[in-house]
Structures are given as structure tokens and as C-alpha cells.
Amino acid sequence: MDYLELLKQAEKAKKFSYANYSNFHVGAALIGASGTVYLGANVEGASYGVTTCAERTAFYKAITEGERKFTTIAIISDSDKIIYPCGICRQVMSDFVDDNFVIICGNSNLEYEVYTFEQLMPKCKIPL
Percent of the chain at pLDDT above 70? Predict the structure, then answer.
């Protein structure tokens, strides 16, 4: 699947966002190593601490369905500015992706930038 098509899948996921407080809707489309695409949307709570980003929703759906390795994620919002994964999402990613994991960061106009995990989060991996 090419980057634009994956971004369009993220746009479809965005429609399921529950953003009653911020009105900032985000969608994500995550490709597992199996080739399965997992969709996620942000879900807010009255206490922002319980809010879950679209990226984490997609990862958690995939993980609870048995997927443990991933190749690519696309994220998109209602904004005309390109968005990037937050620090918490990057930390979750660090447990499941390698440095070559592809992150497609998009905006509401379907414009996007492409990064590897290593580019967005250098030296994040904790050596075990």
C-alpha cells in the first residue's frame, strides 16, 4: 500500500474519533508485519489524562489481536498543519518497532512528510 492510500485509511479512521472536548480529530492507520491494517482514532475523556491518541489506539488494537511487529503508520487530523506523534505514542512505538519503522505524518489536505522512527526518536531504544 502506498503512503497516500494509507493516509486515506487514517482519514477514514478519523471519522470515529471521540473529541468532544478539544474538537481535534485524529486518525491512524497501522500496518502490521502480517500486512493487516489496523485503524485507530483518538478518544478523549473529561480528564485529559485518560485520553488515548489515535496512534496508541491502533497499536493497542493490533497488539490485542496478536500482532507484535509493525512496518508503517500514517496519522492525520483536521488541521491544515502536519501533525506528529506525541511523546507517549513514540514511547509506545519504541516497544514494538525498529529504527526503520515508517511514520507518515499528514494534514487535512492529504499532504504528508515521511520519517523513520530513528529520525523522529533518535536514541530512544533502551538497551536491555
Answer: 95
